[in-house]
Prior knowledge:
The protein has 198 residues and is α+β, with helices and mostly antiparallel strands. It is 33% helix and 18% strand. It has one domain (2-197): Glutaredoxin, CATH 3.40.30.10. It has 5 helices and 8 strands; from the N terminus they run αββββαβαβαββα. Strands 1-8-7-4-5-6-2-3 form an 8-stranded mixed beta sheet, with helices on one face. α3 (128-137) links the parallel β5 (116-121) and β6 (143-146). 35% of the residues are buried.
Amino acid sequence: MLRRVAAAILAALLVLTAGCGGVRPDGADQEPVGVFHGEGGADPAPDAAAPEVKPMPGYLAADIRATDVFSGKAVSLADLKGQPVFLNFWATWCPPCKDEMPDMEEFHREMGDRVRVVAIGADGFESREKMAAFAEALGLTFLVVHDGGSAARAYLVSGVPTSFFIDAEGVIRVRHTGQLSLEEMKEYAELASKTAED
């Protein structure tokens, strides 16, 4: 009993000191926090003849196969190819994620289908029903999906919220760990849209 209490206290301290960050489920170290635009701190873009899938700017985004929390329909990132995507990893227990959602909803309402917003649960232990109740309580109308945490592992997400802006060709243009403002969302979406048009 005492060991359980000690373990619970230790887990709570880790969550409090890490905010909504923490260590990835596979135990690897956290990736750097910040924004990478495919230059400066990011890996160089791969050879155009041999595109590589990697969760960094300049590389192809990994496909995601998930379930819409409201309709139960299957969703994949490949289905959205041809238009820019704002891909956001989040969790219901994360205060910055909850604070970011109204701006994401405003962004979605302003952008419509010009930039698709996809919010995917990063916590593999959260149920589809819990995520749907959370999204419904906030009045979210953009695509909210559940996949049991597979995409978070593929995208090496170690803290939430983490967002990716992907161009129409499926190439990641921005990776940002931390809460985004509406203005930042628009700025990054414009970058992904311009790149897609070039």
